Amino acid sequence: MSRIRRVLVVGIDGVRLDTLRRVPTPHLDAVADAGFLSPVAVAETTPTMSGPCWATILTGVDVTKHGVWSNDFSGHRLGVFPDFATRLARQDGRRTYVAAAWEPLVTVADGGPMLRRPTRLTHHAPAADTPAAWEEADAAIVRDAVAVLTHEDPEASFVYLGAPDETAHHLGCGDAYETSVETADRRLGDLLTALRSRPSYATEAWTVLVVTDHGHRDEGGHGGGSPDERTAWLACAGPDITAGARPARPVRHVDVAAQVYAALDRTPDSHWTLDGARIPTVPRAVLLDMDGTLVDTEPLWLEATRSVAAAHGHTLTEAEGASVLGRSCADTAAWLDGHCPDSGADVLEAELEETFLAAVEADAPLRPGARALLDLLEHDGPPAALVSASPRRVVDAVLRTLGGEAFRTTVADGESDRSKPHPDPYLMAAARLGLPPEACLVVEDSPTGIAAAEAAGCRVLAVPSSAPIEPAPGRRVRFDLTSLLHEWAQRESV
């Protein structure tokens, strides 16, 4: 059964990117290591103030649409362009949760609320406009949020921490500010622990986003256009992102809400006119299946199996043919041995290999996008490995057509302890590249290969060739390989 998608967004106000590089933030680092952390440039048209920046983050549209131009929200258009928690609750009937101490976010103060109608709300206003009072308010917010995240079932949540920004305003970006950032990170850790403590956590697929709205000048304060004020950041990890990935294009504040919708597998309606989009990422390595993924050899394999079975007195049914796709010669021969009495698995395996090899050498057409993808991987892409359930002789025959320059290593049937659908081939390929499997994207076409990749702990891009494949957390499905080319080609766009 597919895991249930859930999203947590943690907003930490006014945290400079360079501060993260100086102070210990192990919980934020863990999110970044499991996915990515990227700088975000506040758009030139957006004032570097909390109101406009958070409105952009939460709605997914720019300031000219949502109309929040300052920390007084009067005149906004949040009814037309609502925040993601409100939109998901009102339009989809999803359970959403918001926890925040800054009053305009959740009350009518100063033209609010920005987050208009989540299904569950926590609010603790600070007792005074001081760093200490804001620390107490954040502590109360997180205490309540931990209880909700542990024991209730919000599908999308937003938790706001404001103490670092307030500390910078009062005391500048010195020791007290850095201490406040460290404290916010500990509170992030409490929220992440709450997720892991959920009784249903093992059946859920959580995406976590941690984002700031703007930076600060050294002396404290923002609203100008300096790099320190205009540089924000986003960290994101989830089932659809490989560990240590890098965004394929510059990340923007408008992308945060879009990423929330993508994490919930919710396609935005066109009339929402979002300015943001899901953030495409480039993995640290790509592990490519061969048959049916790069070359259109699945029909050849099916015909080879059908021919060998018929020669030994068995007529392959359609369902049986589907079951052998993606399997090795040895596995298929062992299965055929049960249907072809007195043949012997060794004999069947040898005949399967010879028949398939002859067909591949005669004609192994490339699948759409394969040549362009291999060229990209060879010259400008992440490290790649070829991982096949075919025998080495078949792999080498295909490589003579493909060229092996794009691959740092190749794994063929029999070179790992077990073949697909076991994880061993993908674990071997990741180890040869010196990477953990969760840092690798596997590109596969068959349920057998996908089972191997997911058992290894890899993220998967499925490009079905014969058997249908359903999307799931950690498994995206695309029509063909050109989707990767389109995503990675965005790297220079804005």
From TrEMBL:
The keyword Acetylation does not apply. SUPFAM superfamilies: Alkaline phosphatase-like, HAD-like. Gene3D superfamilies: Alkaline Phosphatase, subunit A (3.40.720.10), HAD superfamily/HAD-like (3.40.50.1000), Putative phosphatase, domain 2 (1.10.150.240). It holds the Pfam family Phosphodiest. GO terms for molecular function: hydrolase activity; metal ion binding. Its cofactor is Mg(2+). InterPro entries: Alkaline_phosphatase_core_sf, Beta-PGM-like, HAD-like_sf, HAD-SF_hydro_IA, HAD_sf, PGP-like_dom2, Phosphodiest/P_Trfase. It comes from the Bacteria. Keywords: Carbohydrate metabolism, Hydrolase, Magnesium, Metal-binding. Belongs to the HAD-like hydrolase superfamily. CbbY/CbbZ/Gph/YieH family. This is HAD-IA family hydrolase. It comes from Streptomyces californicus. The lineage of its organism: Bacteria, Bacillati, Actinomycetota, Actinomycetes, Kitasatosporales.
